[in-house]
Write a structure and sequence with these properties.
Length: 110
Amino acid sequence: EGGYAQIRFNPYDRAPLRLSINGEKGLSNPDDIIAFYEAYQAFSRICHDPSMAVKIQLTPGTVIFIDNLRVLHARTAFAGYRQMCGCYLSRDNLMAKSRLHVEESIRLQV
């Protein structure tokens, strides 16, 4: 019905679409490839539109959690030294542990 489950967008890590020839994997209709790239370019313009961005300058010691299935995120250029540490958490484990430390009114918003 035109819905979607999730979007993953990384313009720097994407293989080109292939046209299926002689039963190879790929799209069988060249018009589908053209339609994909037109839609991809339109979506890319939305993602890179400055009016769609929220910029947050992190300070030393700041911890930030980003739900990769709900938020598209990026970084801008940075001059100087920085040290960042990343990790991946399962949503179920995070929510189970956070319930012990977060007020109910906040939990209901997540």
